[in-house]
């Protein structure tokens, strides 16, 4: 069994910063890509940032220059540093990991339960 647990969400004023963390645990054989999606009310879930196992990163245009994704492979953890936050960043943020377990060959996507980020104007 694999679990992804997020932390670090909360309420912040516009211009402020938050750091999200997500730890993957369980019968993990290998983690490939990790990343963050978000979903605002009445909007589709969108990719915010992703990072490969070698450290290559990808960001959606609206967060480039403000958000930084990183990972600690030894801790099976992915981070999202969010600076210069805007009200439009308000959403539930979900982490994901593409990984294989020691029990089942092949890679599957696993998701965290989500953490609320609210940016007030």
Number of helices: 0
**Helix percentage:** under 10%
* First-last Cα distance: 41 Å
Query: What is the count of β-strands?
Result: 11
**Helix/sheet category:** mainly beta
Structural Rg? 14 Å
How does this structure look, described?
The protein has 121 residues and is mainly beta. The radius of gyration is 14 Å and the shape is elongated. It is built from no helices and 11 strands. 0% of the residues lie in helices and 60% in strands. The mean pLDDT is 96. The strands form 2 sheets. Strands 2, 4, 5, 6, 9, 10 and 11 form a 7-stranded mixed beta sheet that branches. It has strands at residues 2-7, 10-13, 18-26, 28-39, 46-51, 57-59, 67-72, 77-82, 91-101, 108-111, 115-120.
Short description:
This protein has strands at 2-7, 10-13, 18-26, 28-39, 46-51, 57-59, 67-72, 77-82, 91-101, 108-111, 115-120.
Set down the secondary structure blueprint.
Layout lengths: L1 E6 L2 E4 L4 E9 L1 E12 L6 E6 L5 E3 L7 E6 L4 E6 L8 E11 L6 E4 L3 E6 L1
Parallel strand pairs: 2-11
Antiparallel strand pairs: 1-3, 3-8, 4-5, 4-9, 5-6, 7-8, 9-10, 9-11
Key terms for this structure?
121 residues; elongated; mainly beta; four-stranded antiparallel sheet; 60% strand; seven-stranded mixed sheet
């Amino acid at each position: 069994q694999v679990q992804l647990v997020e932390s670090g969400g909360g309420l912040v004023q516009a211009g402020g910063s938050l750091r999200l963390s997500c730890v993957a645990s369980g019968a993990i054989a290998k983690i490939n890509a990790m990343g963050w999606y978000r979903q605002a009310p009445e909007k589709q879930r969108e990719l915010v940032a992703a990072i490969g196992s070698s450290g290559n990163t990808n960001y959606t245009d609206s967060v480039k220059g403000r958000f930084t994704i990183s990972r600690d492979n030894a801790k099976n953890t992915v981070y999202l540093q969010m600076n210069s936050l805007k009200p439009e960043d308000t959403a539930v943020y979900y982490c994901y990991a593409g990984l294989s377990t020691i029990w089942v060959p092949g890679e599957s996507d696993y998701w965290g339960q989500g953490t609320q980020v609210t940016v007030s104007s």
